[in-house]
Amino acid sequence: MAYMNKILITILMFFLGIQVSAHPWKPEHHIIIDTDCGIDDYRTICMLLAASDIRILGMVTSNGVLDAEKGYSKLRNLLADLHHEGILTATSDYTGSSAKNCSTALNFSWGEETTLSGKEYSAKQLVEHILCNTSDPVDYICLGSLNTVAGLYKGSSVFREKVGIMIWSSGTEMNDDNFNYSLDKEAYRFITDSTGLSLKIVAGELLDLKYSTSLIEQIHGLDNAYAKKLYTSLTDIQSPYAKVLFDECVPLYIQNEELFRTDTLSPLIHQKVIFSDRSAMEKCLIQIIKGYSGDQHQVLNKFPLDTSFYQSDVQEIMRSSIEKYGMKEWVSGVITNELHGHLGVYATIGTKMGIRAREYFGAGIDEMKVVSFAGNTPPFSCMNDGLQVSTGATLGHGLIRIASDTLKLPEAEFLYMGRTIRIALKDKYRKRIEGEIKEYRLVYGLTSDMYWELVRTAAIRYWANWNRHEIFSITEEY
Q1: Tens digits of per-residue pLDDT, 1-18?
Q2: For the chain, which domains are there?
Q3: What is the model's pTM?
């Protein structure tokens, strides 16, 4: 009888159109990117980082437009600029294809020069680490030659067993005019003749798609770091190809397959050609770059952004805080302080810390485990409310625990896909909070209305003025 009830409920939910999912906010696509670091690769990576329904688990640089080492430095600079330092990166182990080191791509800056420390991965180690630490299907996105793919297939049983779809940005004619094919023709023949991999070709060049003036202006009007990066590449580069879409059709295909038609070249190879509906293409492109819009909620259709919804002192910081720190932090900050019962200093610190951890890994909500060292006693323990809201690692989900260490600190560990980082509030900020709160307590006492008014004022000031990229130290544990 119980079995029949389950069947009936499942059928009913199907006809009602109810999506059965434990995590309705979970991204649909988990990907590894293989790039040879051309200008179109740069734009494509920015789009894929921005897209709310795509999770980048790692990136490999291969020889092509640039050599793998030069490309790796540029990629690390980009990730540091965007504060995604924790996304795994590696240079290819496989050097069958030679690099062109095109001057335009070589001279274009992906971000400020950085010397990020961390564990060094080979391409094989990176791919195997990712595939062994996720239960989600992982697609491999190749923006250059198939050289690294061929090497991984030959050298990694994990790659052979677990990689799902292969998407390759390439021309459809396999000749010397097809840049990505010409880099390593043998790799293409090996993949198509000997592997059985499902290779999907996204042929962005076939309809000669270009960034129109209106599209460039729309990108300029988007207020996020990814859009700013894209706009710079579209206005600073003087090249005949500066405003042509090539690899950028890959995120369009991943997010909007309905815009494409399929021409079957063989049982395993599919030529993907974008439709000639320019307005639809531009609309989809803008939606991808917009990314998170603050409306990924379970109860609300949209998060309230009318200032009249907020208390007057919060109204004063709303616009500038969203502009400086983004919607994710704002939404988490509002929910945290409502949950906390008052505007708390350490609750706000916990919010900023959790958002910083997600940003570092490029992780989504409810994807990390958290160990808090803030204890169970205020004021430090107030941080736990902010950590739960900003990461989704709540007590109810069983993803957060309080460390038993006797020394209580505004610090936490974040565990994501087999890796752990520790984030701590820097001493100068901690001492400033302690000094202010101690003074309020000594002068007014904990039961005074004035004490709580001053705490509220301090919390709002820290919310508005303390940048999560400056107030924390981050160390990765190996």
Answers
A1: 444 444 444 433 443 343
A2: 29-290 (3.90.245.10), 307-477 (3.30.1330.130)
A3: 0.91
